[in-house]
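Before relying on records like the one below, remember that each one covers exactly one chain. Contacts with other chains, cofactors or solvent are not represented anywhere in the record.
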Amino acid sequence: MNKIITISLLAIILALANDAAAVSPNSSAGASGKNQVQQQTQTVNQGESDQIQTQNNEQTGGGIDQTETGAQAQQDEDETGDDQADEQNKGKSGEVKTNKQEEKVNNEVAEQRRSQVANAVQEMLQVADRNGGIGQQVRVIAQAQNQNQEELEVSLQNVQNRGGFARFFIGPNYGEINNAQKLLEQNREQIEQLNQIKNQLSNQSDAQTLTEQIQTLEQANLEIENSLQNAQGGFSLFGWAFRLFSK
C-alpha cells in the first residue's frame, strides 16, 4: 500500500513538473515574440521617420536650390541689362565725345586759317601803302578778302555743326553752302585781279610779297572748298528737295 501511494505521488510530481516545463517555454516564447514585434514596430516607425525626414530635407533643399537659382538668374539678368545699358551709354558718350573732338579740331583749323589770311591782308596793305595809286586797288581787295574770310568761316561752321540726324533726313545746310560758294567765287575773281596788279608793280620785292599772299589766299579758299564738298557727301532722305529749294 505504501508503494502504491509513493508511486502515485511520484507520478503526480512528474506530471506537475512537465506542466511547469511546458508553461515556462511558452512564456519565454511569448515574451520573445512580444519583444520581436516591438522591435519590428520600432524599426518600421524609425524607417518611416527617416524617410519622412529625408523627403522633407529634399523638398526643403530643392526649394532653397530653386529659390537660389531663380535669384541668381534674376541677378544675372539684371547684370546683363546693366551691362547693355552701360554699353549704350558708352556708345552715346563716345559719340558725343567724338563730335566734340571733331568740332574742336574744326575750330582750331578755322582759327589758324583766319590768322593766316589776316597776316596776308596786313602784308598786302603794306604793299598798298608803298605803291600810291595802284596800291589803292590792292587795299580794296585786301579788305574784301578779310571780310569774305570771316563770312566764309561762319558759313562753314554752320555747315559742319549740323547734326547727323538732320543730315540724314534733310541733308547738309545747302543755304550756307550756297552762300559760301558765292563768296569763294568772289575771292577767285579778286585774286585774279591781284595777279594782274602784281605784274604792274615796279618794286620786285613788293611783287614777290604780293605773290606769296596770293598763294596764302588761294590755299585758304581751297581748304574751305574741300570742306564744303565733304559736307555734301553721304546719303539723305529728302536732301535733294532741300537742295532745290535752297537755290
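The CA atoms of residues 10 and 16 lie 10 Å apart.
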